[in-house]
Amino acid sequence: MAVKTVVIRFFGRFPRLLSDENYSKLLYRIVFGKKLDTAHPKTFNEHIIVAKFEDKKYDYAQYTDKYEVRKYVENTVGAEYLNPIYGVFNSFEEIDFDVLPKQFALKATHASGFNVIVTDKEKLNRKEAAKKFSRWLKTNFYYKDREKNYYRIKPRILCDKYIEFDDALIEYRLYCFHGKLRLICQDIDKDGKRYTNVFDGDWNAVPVRFGYDRLPHPLTEKRQELTQVAEKLSAPFDFVRVDLYENNGLVRFSELTFHSGGGLVPFEPDSYDNEFGKFFEQINDSEDSK
């Protein structure tokens, strides 16, 4: 996806050259090789992209901010689902590493993927980490995929507990529509690679590749709890992806994602893009009947 990366970087520097809609149309054509019909979205990815244009998404900053969303999670499902934190900081220089444990994670509150995972703080290259966060904190993540929920977030650094795992780190991405779980991705980080297994809302395997190769792996016994937590957190929204970790028998909240993959992740076979797009049409049908 070299072309896509170049386009994102260029328009990240010069965002006013293209409107949000035209920018999304350009990226869609690069990824899928066809025109995006924003007026009549049918596929899963088309619906994701069109949802970005809703002005109400500016108000979703409180649910996207990695620190502020904790209040919502605590009030909705309980503090026991939150990973413990060691602090939130306005700059890297504010962090007192002497009081931190050996292992922890540093995450930009206003973005996705702006993380430094520390497994041994004595080996952390603080100068390099400081450079990264200096650059990241000056970045408005909205301009990457034009997701309005990122636009108003105050850039900060969240320091939270390192999640230990034995063989692989497992994360469940639970796609919910009007508070009902419809689609599940089991993400497996193993030996430096990521794999994704797809399931329907009843936890039955779906033979589709979605972004990453599949890898046979047992499902957690916490499926019912994951479902209940995801559906409670998703209840106020038409659509949201609830990301949860399950590790050592504990379920932990990761984040709420309102525009999964930016609407730019192909399905293989691509017939599932249309099949899963029907979940969005059910939302529209229910709203029309009100």
Keywords:
290 residues; 24% strand; 9 helices; six-stranded antiparallel beta sheet; alpha+beta; 31% helix
3D architecture notes:
By secondary structure, the protein is of the alpha+beta class. 31% of the residues lie in helices and 24% in strands. It has nine helices and twelve strands. It has helices at 2-13, 20-32, 44-51, 61-64, 69-76, 126-136, 142-145, 223-234, 271-288, and strands at 85-89, 104-108, 115-118, 157-161, 169-177, 180-190, 193-200, 205-206, 209-210, 239-247, 250-257, 267-268. A hairpin with a 4-residue loop joins strand 7 and strand 8. Helix 1 (2-13) packs antiparallel against helix 2 (20-32). The relative contact order is 0.16.
SSE topology sketch:
Layout: H1 2-13, H2 20-32, H3 44-51, H4 61-64, H5 69-76, E1 85-89, E2 104-108, E3 115-118, H6 126-136, H7 142-145, E4 157-161, E5 169-177, E6 180-190, E7 193-200, E8 205-206, E9 209-210, H8 223-234, E10 239-247, E11 250-257, E12 267-268, H9 271-288
Antiparallel strand pairs: 1-4, 2-3, 2-4, 5-6, 5-10, 6-7, 7-8, 9-12, 10-11
Helix pairs in contact: 1-2, 3-9
